[in-house]
Specification:
By secondary structure, this protein is mainly alpha-helical. The chain is built from six helices and two strands; from the N terminus they run αβαααβαα. A two-stranded parallel sheet has the order 1-2. Helix 2 runs antiparallel to helix 3.
Length: 186
């Protein structure tokens, strides 16, 4: 197996340009790019000790990586849509339970007016109604933020520049390590 193949999932039977990335490589790239400035374009430089025997594969690596992250962004968008759909259903259920509990609380006050049991029942039913609102509030106030941030990051990764540098060629051409580093600058 060539080094460039290690970036991609060896079990995936898809053509090279459409393969999933190796989970470790994916996690490394995503985690490494999380802390970078959001207004700066991303670039990935892949260093190879030896050039691959199949030079045509080198031309497909950038597209394969970008396709992988574009597919991840699309999948994550679908997850966000599903979360909002679940949130809408949860909100309908929560509002129905809250309305019913408010109504039951008022009825209990009417039937058992003045009794301490009426107050306990009224408060218990009302608390139950607000607990039913917990999940929709959690979804619409907190759960969607990290997913939206991941989509933005994956969109950036799907458009990043990918450069492949074979170290033996670059070192021989550059003559020294400082020349080598300068040769990587755009």
């Amino acid at each position: 197996m060539e080094l460039i193949d290690q970036l991609f999932n060896s079990i995936d039977p898809s053509p090279f340009h459409a393969r999933d990335m190796d989970p470790g490589a994916d996690a490394y790239i995503v985690d490494s790019s999380k802390g970078l400035a959001k207004d700066v374009p991303l670039a990935l430089i892949i260093h190879l000790d030896q050039p691959p025997t199949d030079e045509a594969k080198l031309g497909q690596v950038a597209r394969a990586i970008q396709t992988h992250f574009a597919a991840q962004a699309a999948t994550t968008r679908l997850q966000l849509r599903e979360l909002f759909g679940r949130g809408r259903i949860s909100l309908l259920i929560g509002l129905s339970v809250l309305s019913l509990s408010i109504g039951l609380g008022e009825v209990s006050n009417t039937w058992l007016s003045g009794a301490s049991m009426a107050q306990i029942l009224h408060q218990s039913v009302l608390i139950g109604g607000w607990v039913a609102m917990w999940r929709p509030m959690e979804i619409f106030l907190y759960d969607w933020w990290p997913i939206a941030a991941r989509i933005r990051l994956l969109d950036r990764l799907a458009t990043m520049q990918v450069h492949i540098v074979a170290r033996q060629r670059a070192l021989a051409a550059a003559g020294s390590s400082s020349d080598f580093l300068n040769s990587l600058k755009p």
